[in-house]
Structure formats: structure tokens, C-alpha cells
Design goal:
about 75% helix, single chain, mainly alpha, 3-stranded antiparallel beta sheet, about 220 residues, 11 helices
């Protein structure tokens, strides 16, 4: 019953946010939300019959959503259906390498182009990070995601923003393994360095601080796997 309520609540929220989604899109977003929130963990099995009941949908959109999630490497096939993928270290490092190409330049341009409104949002984000200090890991991950999104937006480059948005879900999936409570304080410290450089409009320092931050992610995962 509790599981059913979680799916129904998620489904209602997504329907309100995206009123023109078809059932396949809704099922996809609901299942992905459960994976990214940690309610579905690596190795957890997903049965079409149960999902069909929980989401009050036929099996066809459920099946199509599961196939799509498998194609995107969130799910893998098992003997009877699908299960949530385990952590893939190669995927993590490839994402880190890709981010190192894009996000340092986002920070560089953000230091030059950030607006007053974006600066205010970034300041509020940093204040929330200081208050949270890693106590609530899910909130830490959400704040980290928001921090990078604001910087991508503040770059003033629509292609950078579109690229960063394209890997948000994969980044959140990997965060569940990369971010730990005892190491989040170092993540916050890296954010502080980027934030300070952007506040000073120091383009090069912002770029270098972002490089240091993303390299920390790659190093940190080796201590957690």
C-alpha cells in the first residue's frame, strides 16, 4: 500500500508538471524518479504487473518505459524482467571527463556574465549548503545539482546550459555512490571556492576551481567503491 501511494503521489506531481505527457512518458518519469530518489536501489527488481497496478496503467506503456530505462542504463534485464543497474565505474569516469570539458568553461563565463538575479540565487544556494552541511544527503545532492545548474545558466551560453541539462539524471544517479556524508564537507568547500571566484568576477579562478572540484569527484569515488 505504501509503495502504491508513493507511485500515485509521484504520478500526480508529474501529471501536473507535464499535462501533455502520454502514459509511456509518465511511467518512465515515475520509475526514474523512484531510482533517482533512492527508493529503488541497485538490484531491486521491477515487475510489470506490480507497476501496472501501482500506476493504474496497462502493461504496454510500462513495458515501453522499462525498455527505455534499460536503453539509458538505469535498468538491466534479469531472468524474469528488469532490475535497477548497479554502479558502473566506467560510466562514472566518462561522465567526469565529459563534465571537465564543459563545466569549467561554464564557470569561466559565469564569472563574466552572471546577472544580479542569478547571483542572488547562487548566494541562497550556498547559504543552504552551509546550513545543511551534509546532514541530509538527499538535500545535499539536490543543492549540488542546483548549484551547477545556476552556473550553467549564468554562463549565458545556451549550448552549455542545454548540454549540462542533458546529463542531469545520470549525474544524480551517480551521486548516490559518489557523495557520502563524511565527504560532503569537501564538496561544499570546493563550491565555496567556485562561488568566491564568481563573486570576484575572476574568470580564470572560477574555471580552475571548477576543474579542482570535478577532479575531486573522480578521486572521491575510488574511496567509496
Amino acid at each position: 500500500m505504501e509503495e502504491n501511494n508513493k507511485y500515485r503521489q509521484t504520478l500526480k506531481r508529474i501529471e501536473n508538471e507535464h499535462p501533455f505527457y502520454n502514459n509511456t512518458d509518465l511511467a518512465y518519469e515515475c520509475i526514474l524518479d523512484q531510482i533517482l530518489s533512492g527508493d529503488l536501489k541497485p538490484g531491486d527488481k521491477l515487475l510489470q504487473e506490480n507497476l501496472s497496478k501501482n500506476l493504474d496503467m496497462s502493461r504496454t506503456p510500462i513495458r515501453d518505459a522499462l525498455i527505455r530505462l534499460e536503453r539509458e542504463n538505469y535498468l538491466e534485464k534479469n531472468g524474469t524482467g528488469f532490475q535497477v543497474c548497479s554502479f558502473q565505474i566506467r560510466d562514472y569516469f566518462e561522465l567526469c571527463e565529459y563534465r571537465l570539458v564543459i563545466e569549467p568553461k561554464a564557470a569561466f563565463f559565469a564569472a563574466r556574465n552572471i546577472t544580479d538575479e542569478q547571483m542572488e540565487r547562487l548566494s541562497r544556494n550556498m547559504e543552504e549548503q552551509r546550513k545543511n552541511a551534509g546532514r541530509d544527503l538527499r538535500k545535499s545532492m539536490a543543492l549540488d545539482n542546483e548549484f551547477h545548474n545556476i552556473i550553467a545558466e549564468a554562463s549565458g551560453n545556451s549550448y552549455i546550459l542545454e548540454t549540462v541539462n542533458s546529463y542531469q539524471s545520470r549525474k544524480i544517479f551517480n551521486y548516490q555512490f559518489a557523495l557520502q556524508r563524511e565527504t560532503y564537507k569537501f564538496v561544499k568547500n570546493k563550491h565555496e571556492a567556485i562561488y568566491d571566484a564568481i563573486c570576484r568576477s575572476d574568470e580564470k579562478a572560477a574555471e580552475e576551481a571548477m576543474i579542482s572540484h570535478l577532479r575531486f569527484y573522480a578521486k572521491n569515488i575510488m574511496q567509496n567503491v
